[in-house]
Amino acid sequence: MIRAGLTTERLTRAGADLADEVGFEQVTVSALARRFDVKVASLYSHVKSSQDLKTKIALLALEELADRAADALAGRAGKDALTAFANVYRDYAQEHPGRYAAAQLKLDPEAAAASAGGRHAQMTRAILRGYDLTEPDQTHAVRMLGSVFHGYVSLEMAGGFSHTGVDSQESWAWILDSLDALLRNWTTP
Amino acid sequence: MIRAGLTTERLTRAGADLADEVGFEQVTVSALARRFDVKVASLYSHVKSSQDLKTKIALLALEELADRAADALAGRAGKDALTAFANVYRDYAQEHPGRYAAAQLKLDPEAAAASAGGRHAQMTRAILRGYDLTEPDQTHAVRMLGSVFHGYVSLEMAGGFSHTGVDSQESWAWILDSLDALLRNWTTP
DNA sequence: TAGTTTGCCTAAATATGTTAGGCAATTGCA
DNA sequence: TGCAATTGCCTAACATATTTAGGCAAACTA
User: CB burial class (10 A; 0-12, 13-18, 19+) of residue B189?
Assistant: First the structure.
């Protein structure tokens, strides 16, 4: 019988695609096996468990996101960098809702350490070089930016901003303006 | 045989407790049945499905959160209100991680309409009465506050802020200061 | 107290997750 | 090229979760 050519890599990628199509919650070893027209048990040579599969998808999403962010940051500084970076998250979430949801999976410490999480934090710090902040303010600002970006994108994806007449894109622009102004004008009290 | 006294109410509450103990993801009709020492099928007279149970837990959490927020806002204005409101979310998430996670469940439109979601938005607007914003800026600001609060709490719960030496509580205070300053100084461009 | 309703039960079908062990396709080496 | 070792996907089996259908006994109602 002909082989399907399964690899951890292909399974992870297909799992991510599946997540984008039906939601990360619905990603299941069984569904993935069906997609490859293969018996469920066959996947267990390539992923340790359902949890392992989900972790791998999360790590993939974090890498993709970090790659896009790095691209967007290249050659930019100040507000330009801030906006480009923020838009990477928002656009990625819109294009790849399942992957974005995966990126929010709570990782165990080892996986977290091996993830692109550190790159994200580093890039946020790089943006802040365009502003005049010293530690610990810089760390506070990193956390604030992360919170706003993640929070906004989550709430927007959940449909939280679709019940008033105000356009979400406008709010997004307003918020980025505000953050830029805030960081420019910050003076330690 | 003696009856367990199941009701939708009690199941929902027990489900919420279970979520806080083992995580919202792990809440299952079977686990809940075990908790009541009852057969699984018995629960189906009180909840329509596993999804229905989760929705009910989410609605409970949203109500509790709105009640706490309303309490916290009573008699406060300006930055005092802002801080109290923000702390309600953060504290609730810390005390009740499973309930907080449940509150993030994506609800179908009917459930969303019947939820306390509207109260949350109204209360955020009430806080902004202490600042000098008019529409559409007020809506933008509502969205920004929601994003920061939800984003920060999510990232903090996920352990995102535990890998540098800077205390999370300090960042939280810094962010609330910043938001207050931002809203006070906002002038439409 | 008899009748009705309600609550929890048993039984059964279906789906997912996971492990163990087998055979065939592929790879590597003489 | 041909054979051995490896690897990949398979069948089989079991545990757990979801859900529906129908039954019996407890609790209300009159």
Answer: exposed
Q: What is the pLDDT of residues A127-141, one digit of tens each?
A: 999 998 998 999 999
Closest Cα partner for B120 from B130, B131, B112, B132? B112
Q: CA B75, CA B87: separation in Å to the nearest integer?
A: 16
Q: Which residues of B38-53 are buried (b: 16+ CB within 10 A; e: fewer)?
A: eeeeebeebbeeeebb
Helix residue ranges, H only, B28-167 = 29-35, 50-73, 78-95, 97-103, 109-114, 117-128, 137-157
pTM of full prediction above 0.85: yes
* Best of A107, A133, A143, A149 to mutate (most B CBs within 10 Å, chain B): A143
Length of chain B: 189
Q: How far is B158 from chain A (nearest CA, A)?
A: 6
The answer to whether B143 faces chain A, any CB pair under 8 Å, is: yes
- What span, in angstroms and rounded, lies between the C-alpha atoms of B77 and B170? 22
Give the residue from chain B lying closest to A105, CA to CA. B158
Structure tokens at B121: 């938005």
Nearest residue, CA→C1' of D25: B1
What pLDDT digit, counting tens, does each position of B98-133 carry? 999 999 999 999 999 999 999 999 999 999 999 989
Q: Which member of A104, A136, A189 has the closest CB to residue B170?
A: A136
R_g of chain A, CA atoms, integer Å? 19
